[in-house]
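Question (not urgent): is this output format expected?
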Amino acid sequence: MITLFTIGFTKKSAEQFFELLKKNKVKQLVDVRISNSSQLAGFAKGKDLAYFVKQICGIDYKHVTDFAPTKELLDRWHKETVTWPEYIEEYTGMLKQRDIIKKYGVKQFDGSCFLCSEETPEMCHRRLLAEYMKEHSVEEVKIVHLV
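Got this back:
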């Protein structure tokens, strides 16, 4: 069985964030944000995060922009010019168009944790990504949201 984790850093202290990764024995942190260098990210800025997860958790960090929605789609979501069902349809369409299953597979992400900024997974593309991978995997996939 393949296990995919998801996590958001908003409203988490660095201690909470890194302890969740360690406690759940995450093997790799996969950043699925379009931009990982925002000042708002605090400890979750890409270059710093790669260092922190290696030093604190002993795990690798990877930034995969193919897993992120476009800036245009995110802008429309934040401005509420697209509904959540429309967002889901467009985002999953992007994953299909980018052929992420063929390009990356699912198995290599066993034990990986998809990172985004949203506090909870309900209305976040990291959940949609994990569900898309589960739906298109030939193997059984379990999704665990670290909150």
